[in-house]
Design brief:
By secondary structure, the protein is mostly helical. It has two domains: 177 residues, no CATH class; 50 residues. 73% of the residues lie in helices and 0% in strands. It has eleven helices and no strands. The longest helix has 33 residues. 29% of the residues are buried.
Amino acid sequence: MNSRRRDFVTGFAAVAPVVVAYIPIGLLWGTLAASKGLSPLEALLMSVVVFAGSAQFVAVDMWHDPVPVLLLTLTALIVNVRHVLMSASLSRHIDAIPRALHPIVAYFLTDESWALAERRALQEPLTLAFYLGVSLPLAATWWIATGVGAMLGRALGDPSAIGLDFAFSAMFIAILMGFWKGPSTAGVLAMSGAVAAGTYLAFDGPWYIVTGGIAGALYAYSTWRRGAEA
């Protein structure tokens, strides 16, 4: 097995549990989209063009006739501003990927692909084959699951009734634990979580995503500075 195929298979193996978790989440979003009047084709196109689960859930929650295009666009930008931080982090590890292919890396960047790519970079260089092994199954599963969910509509019932709406949160918590490095990690998570929770309770809208990410990054930076100056 050549190195590219081995890296792709390694990426696929790493992401397989996450792919399973994507299925109920995608089905849930598809059913919600159908309940708001989107056709299966429209739901599928949104998943392919937008490809951002959090933003899609926020958008479908705000969806009504006429569609508030400006508000939806602004909200999606707020929800996805964390991608700026993830992109900056990932940019340190993609020197081996040709610059012409960086837009592909950016398109497939999700919370899960970023987390798994960062974990890979802790052990060995990040390659395009590994990244695609992680990203392509995630994207294909999301597209198919949301399309099927939209076709089935409400026939699936309410997935939240059996706790499937928590699948996304549980999945990402499990991925984050792979970064555990002791008390310093606990501090970052605690600071990010506390600020996000406080913002969620104090303000309407998805601002908690932004403030939580920034708070965690600032805490990590301040901890690093203290260690460097010691």
